[in-house]
TrEMBL record:
Family recorded in the similarity comment: Belongs to the class-I pyridoxal-phosphate-dependent aminotransferase family.
Domain Aminotransferase class I/classII large span(s) in chain numbering: 32-396
Keywords: Aminotransferase, Pyridoxal phosphate, Transferase
Enzyme Commission designation: 2.6.1.-
Protein name from the UniProt record: Aminotransferase
Needed cofactors: pyridoxal 5'-phosphate
Gene Ontology BP term (one): amino acid metabolic process
An example molecular function term from Gene Ontology annotations: pyridoxal phosphate binding
Organism, scientific name: Leptospira kemamanensis
Length: 405
C-alpha cells in the first residue's frame, strides 16, 4: 500500500525554505554562514503595527473571525486598492488568507480543472508551478532571460496561448529577478490578454519595493475590462516586514472569491485574528517605515550588484524592484575547476552544484537558479546588512577565483 497520495509525486519541497533551514542549522552549529537565501526583510515589524496587535489582544479580539477576513480589514484593503491603485472593489470581492501563498493556492484550487493550462513566465517564484500541478493544472513555462530584462513580451505571450489556457501569472516586481514592468510593457501584454477568455493573476507582493521612481502598474490598472478579468494578490509580508504574521489578500471576481472562501472554510478557516488587526494597522497607518526600508534596500541593491559585477564570469543586471539579485554565472561554468566538479559530482543542474559547493565549502547560502526555471543563474537576497553582503560576495568571489585554476 502506498501511503502518500499520487498528487505529491509532481511536487517538490520549497528549495528556498530548505536552503534557509540548512543555513540556519549550520549557523546553530557555530559556523559563520552568510545567508542570501531567505526571501524576507531583516527589519523588525514597525512598532505601531505590533502595538495594534497588542491592543487587539487586550480588547479580547482572540476569537474566530469570518473565514474571508474581518470587515475592518477588508475595508482597509478596499481603501488601499482604490487610493493607491485606482481599483474599486466591494467586500464580497475581497478575501484574506494565511499569507499570499494560501490565497494563491486557494485561487487555483477554486478555478482550475484537470488539464487547464497556466502560462508562467520564467524565471518564476518557486511555488507557482507546483501549486498549479497540485490543482491538476498544466504549467506552461515561457522563458525570458537577462537580454530581455527577464520580462515576457507580448509576442511570447500570444504564442503561448492555446484553447486550454485558463490563467496567466503576472509578477512585478519579480521574485527571483527583481524585474519590474513599465506601463508600456503592461499595456502591450494587456493588448494580447483583453480579447481573450483568460484570467490574469497579478502577484503584487513586492509592489512597494520598487526603485528609481518607477511607477507600479499591474494589468488590472490598465482598463476596466482588464480589471474584470484580473485577480490581484497581495499581502503585508514584504513591504511591512511581517513575514511571520502570515497575512495575504486577494481581490477580484466575487464568484471566485466565494469559492475560495469555501476552500478556506474547509481547510484553515480564518487567518489569525491578531494578525488581521496588525495588517489593518499596516495598511491604514503610518507608511514612513516602508519608505525607510526601501531606502536601505536601494543602498544594498547598488552595493551587491556592484560587487557581483567585479567577479569574473558573472553578469548581473540592476533589479528594478524587490530585494533579489539574479546574477548569471555561465562564465563560471566554463572554468576548469567547475568542469572538474561536474565530472566528480555528476550533478545535472549546474546552478545547484554551484550553490551546494558555495554552502558546504564557503559558508554562503544562495538559491540555485534551476529552482526558478533558469539554470544559468543563482538568486541572492540582499535583505541583510551591508557587512554581511560584503563578506558573502567576497566568499563567492573567492570560490570563483578558486574555480579558475
Amino acid at each position: 500500500m502506498k501511503l502518500v497520495a499520487k498528487r505529491l509525486d509532481v511536487v517538490e519541497p520549497s528549495p528556498t525554505l530548505a536552503i534557509t533551514a540548512k543555513a540556519n542549522q549550520l549557523k546553530a552549529s557555530g559556523l559563520d554562514v552568510v545567508g542570501f537565501g531567505a526571501g524576507e526583510p531583516d527589519f523588525d515589524t514597525p512598532t505601531h503595527i505590533k502595538e495594534a496587535a497588542k491592543k487587539a489582544m487586550d480588547q479580547g479580539k482572540t476569537k474566530y473571525t469570518p473565514v474571508s477576513g474581518t470587515v475592518s480589514l477588508k475595508d482597509a484593503i478596499i481603501k488601499k486598492l482604490e487610493t493607491e491603485n485606482g481599483l474599486k472593489y466591494e467586500k464580497n470581492q475581497i478575501i484574506v488568507g494565511t499569507g499570499g501563498k494560501q490565497v494563491l493556492y486557494n485561487f487555483f484550487m477554486a478555478t482550475l480543472n484537470s488539464g487547464d493550462e497556466v502560462i508562467i513566465p520564467a524565471p518564476y517564484w518557486v511555488s507557482y508551478a507546483d501549486i498549479v500541478r497540485l490543482a491538476e493544472g498544466i504549467p506552461v513555462i515561457v522563458s525570458t532571460d537577462i537580454s530581455s530584462g527577464f520580462k515576457i513580451t507580448a509576442e511570447q505571450l500570444e504564442k503561448a496561448i492555446t484553447p486550454k489556457t485558463k490563467v496567466f501569472i503576472f509578477n512585478s516586481p519579480s521574485n527571483p529577478t527583481g524585474a519590474a514592468y513599465t506601463r508600456s510593457d503592461v499595456e502591450a501584454l494587456v493588448k494580447v490578454l483583453e480579447p481573450k477568455d483568460i484570467i490574469t493573476v497579478s502577484d503584487d507582493i513586492y509592489e512597494k519595493i520598487i526603485y528609481d521612481g518607477l511607477e507600479f502598474v499591474n494589468p488590472a490598472m490598465i482598463s476596466h475590462k482588464m480589471k474584470e478579468k484580473t485577480f490581484v494578490i497581495n499581502g503585508v509580508s514584504k513591504a511591512y516586514s511581517m513575514t511571520g504574521w502570515r497575512i495575504g489578500y486577494g481581490a477580484g471576481n466575487a464568484e471566485i472569491v466565494k469559492n475560495m472562501d469555501t476552500m478556506q472554510g474547509q481547510s484553515t478557516s480564518n487567518a489569525s485574528s491578531i494578525s488581521q488587526a496588525a495588517a489593518e494597522a499596516a495598511l491604514s497607518g503610518d507608511q514612513t517605515p516602508v519608505a525607510e526600508m526601501l531606502k536601505a534596500f536601494d543602498k544594498r541593491r547598488k552595493l551587491i550588484v556592484g560587487l557581483l559585477r567585479e567577479i569574473p564570469g558573472v553578469e548581473c543586471r540592476m533589479p528594478e524592484g524587490a530585494f533579489y539579485a539574479f546574477p548569471y554565472i555561465t562564465g563560471v561554468y566554463e572554468m576548469p575547476g567547475f568542469k572538474r566538479l561536474l565530472a566528480e559530482k555528476k550533478e545535472s543542474s549546474y546552478s545547484k552544484l554551484f550553490c551546494d559547493v558555495l554552502l558546504d565549502k564557503y559558508n554562503v547560502a544562495a538559491v540555485p537558479g534551476i529552482a526558478f526555471g533558469d539554470d544559468k543563474a543563482i538568486r541572492l537576497s540582499y535583505a541583510l546588512g551591508d557587512k554581511d553582503i560584503e563578506k558573502g560576495v567576497a566568499r563567492i568571489k573567492q570560490m570563483v577565483e578558486d574555480l579558475q585554476k
